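Researcher: Last one for today. Full complex below.
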Amino acid sequence: MKKAVAAGVLIAATALVAGCSKEETPAAPPASGAAGASYEGGFKVEAQQAAQVAEATKSGNIKAVAGPAGTAVVTVKDGESIQAAVTAAQPGTTIRIMPGTYHETVYIDKDNIRLIGVIEGGKRPLLDGEKKLNDAVLYSGNNVVIENLEFRNYKGNGIMGQAGNNFEIRNNVIVDTGVYGIFPQLGTNGVVEHNVVSGIADAAIYIGMSDNFHVAHNDVFDSVAGIEIENSRHAIVENNYVHNNTGGLLAFITPGLPIKTTYDVIFRNNFVVGNNHPNFGAPGSTVAGIPPGTGILVMAADDVIIEGNIISDNKNIGILVTDHANAPNVTIDPESEPNSDRVAILNNMMLNNGYETIPELKALMLTEFKQGNPDIARVGPSPGSCILDRDRYVTVGVKDFAECSFSNTADKLTYLLPPVPPREIDLADRGKVAYMGICAGCHIYTGRMIGPPVQVIQALYMDNPQGIADYIAAPTKKRDDYPEMPPQDYLDPETRLEVAKYMLSRKN
Amino acid sequence: VRVKIASLLAASALLAGVALLFAARGAHGGEFALAGACPPSFEANAAGRCELRNLYEFYDSLQGAGLGGTKTHLPDHRDGFTPQQIDLGRYLFFDPLLSGDRSVSCASCHHPDRGFSDARARSVGIDGADVGRAAPTLWNVGFLKSFFWDARAKTLEEQAQGPLFSPHEMGATPEKLHADLNANATYRELFADAFPDAGPQIALDEVYTAIAAFQSSLISLNSRYDRYAQGFHAALTEREIAGLNVFRSFVARCSECHTPPLFTNQQIAVLGTPEPPGRALDVGAEKTFNAPKLKGGFKVPTLRNIALTAPYNHSGAFSTLRETAAFYTGGRGHAVPPGVQMQIHWHIWDPKLADDELDLLVDFMKTLTDESLKPAIPARVPSGLAPVGRLDPTRSAVADTAQSNDKGASS
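Model: Here's the assembly. Have a good evening.
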């Protein structure tokens, strides 16, 4: 939190609020638990989706979004290279990794690859970066599954996704892999569950700039941040054990990123316990400003629902709702809305929080003549927010919160989408677009560019598109007055044939 | 066999015909007839406007933002111009008539043979003055949402007026530009062709539109990296792939801001880079947004064709890619002048990149080069002045001779 200057501003602002609002008592007894109304906002769950999720959850809590596994299976043994198997694999391959120690960075730039560890007698395959390697796994493909592995001693991330969709990351042990443990970024539709993550210098699990995901049943501890939802939407974070981090659960908008919003986040039924670890975040990182002992922190995120959590023994505060103006270490961004709008604090079990709270919050309590150790604080504007049964807790800054009109999110089983079918690209379209983006740089219909006119090529090949497709893969010099054509072998054979057909069909 | 011979004969005849057409073009078509077809990578829609076509269009992207990973949609592109507008823009772009003393054109600082930049630390204007910042590349500029290093313009049309009317850059005035173009019969014809519904006079807005149209056609998306991204993994060597993995690792963090597929996330970033010796600190976006937290902040530049545009950074402090990459492992804020407060970007940290990792990053950045759709410099421009104009007053006259590499804008 900001030091003295910011605190002064805080107090002044809060005093204004305090001066013009009177103590409110809820008119009716608060609704509690599942007996009350259910949340009607948030991501709309389609009937078909609900059915698929029900099917997927029959056998326990496993959630599947990557679609069915392919039939190809290869096995990597101790002493062999996982990357070599990935490089050789066709999409749809499951790569079984036997127990052993692997020192490598594995990158997956293709779809439908599963890295599945084989656990024998409690021994899982270990990827050990020896504090020399950057990241353990990087993936950009869709439908990637990473399961049953152990990661240690990397410098960057354990598992990082870059725009891969429909991912499943589960049952992994991740210890001291650098900045993040699990970090899917710019992806849609993913599951992060049943992972044990610790010793991470930023967030153990960090969902960044992503949509529609489920983070559940993870054990995250001894890290600067437990689970961070940043510039992302449609998130359910439930049933996690989040303990002894500096901050437990975070919902942030970080300004200066190209995706500008966080909204529709549910934090429910998590244990958020004793997150009092000293902050060892890198200087200048956003999380380096989190005061140790912060259970749940909402900064600028909208429509965050906090429900059914056990929030205990967090020495600074149980729940803190704040904005950009009061956060240290953040830049400004005219395109980022800085306030936490419509936060809903439903029923939570809160116990023994705020026993060593920061001076700024103590000062804030003085302005409201509050005594005791704070469970919940709001600093900075938070319009449209609500809280249930506020008198159960020691609170500060929430007097202007309404009573919530709903008491649970029982209707929101999941925000996941059905497994998205593989990308189907119409080949004819592909041929046409490849022609426009590549061939047209050197060939026009009539007239001389770098290569001969399309009309001439049409006359030569007429009904023989395959002849063009073969030629462009490995061209030879044919004309003294034109430069030799560079090979177009980076286009797959089907695309080359479609390009050829399209070229022969051109009329101008 | 007979069919084959016949078709060969037909092809030869066609080729001969083409040669004839070429010879005759100047006499019959009018020397400055505008292209009737969209440039490469563009397809005419039903209304005759050119729309970008590229293999990346087959993918999706989170929130439609066009960011991240390999198979990801591009950001929205500024297309929808007519072929005539684009080709008219090309003539204007290379015509020194647009400068106050008729000595320089847009291409003087954004030259196609210099990565649409000028190979200088900072550009030089008509009076030989240092204009203070480096000329950004124009490759893929049609994808950008803000312009200039400090993001002070929101459209290409707005941007064009900056250098045109800056007394130290092109030194034109709206009045003189309007008068000069309207006094030129060829331009009057060409504008009438490109803007058929407009009035009898050439309007300055049409000038900006045409220049924007031409710039939006500068597409570079078929580099060896792109071939890798589209799935042809043999397009990159092992070292280049290793470089890609350093680039996107969370140790180097390059791709967090130079995000594929455009290799910029188009945000302002405060890096705390040095100025060249003797130059005062450039506050950058602080001025644009009146925000001290953005002091020293600049728009993240694209890295496409970056190997072609040395020296680097907003004022040319780094002469090589290697030197630029090494800045990022020099420690957070190491080059910030004493006493200056900067809110350094959170991704700037102390990654301790090894020497070989820096070499790998350079190897990877060189795979982002693609000039396959480089437009032709017109052999002549309507003003009759030498196309391009003076490239650089400090260079010899020989080097300044505009090279005509017109590859035939005959369509």
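DSSP finds eight helices and 34 strands in chain A. Chain A has a mean pLDDT of 89.
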